[in-house]
Amino acid sequence: MNTTAPLGAQAAAAFTDYRDGDRDRLRDLVALLTPLLWHTARSQRASQQVAEDAIQTAWVRLVDASDSITDPKGIVSWLVVTVKRETWRLMRLAGRETAPEGGMPETVDDATPEDAVLRTDEQRVLWRHVNELSERCRALLRVIAFAATPDYASVAATLGMPVGSIGPTRGRCLAKLRTALLSDPSWEA
Known about the structure:
Layout: H1 7-19, H2 24-42, H3 48-65, H4 75-94, H5 113-132, H6 135-145, H7 152-159, H8 163-182
């Protein structure tokens, strides 16, 4: 997979290859987009279980609808919208909303317990300040943070923003976050 290409182009290529019979490319697509989908679901204030279920359902729906999707360039937006709608549906069924507990599920690593506690505290402070940003800033930073090379056209379509405002808006959002973090005595930069 060409990791220097924009996210939308990478996703479109993987989806097209999958639909053309290369079943291994679905694995590439899942690896590429699951972090973005995870944060999409969690940004809706879904619990970890609801987020996992919504994402899994979105992937199943993609496989079921793969022959009817006419524009592979829209696959990122299609999946984001599907995850949001499924998250909302599952939350309605559950009858409650829960606050996000963090980011992606923890992975096994060689960190000491002390390192894990410090990392968790840093994440808690960071996400507290991210959650204090406007909804527009939160959505934009989540999308851009989890794409190695964000595809501004896909980001614009997904968030309903003009392409030309993404960079300046991102800059303003990051400046607000930086100011908030630097003024927080519990943040150690």
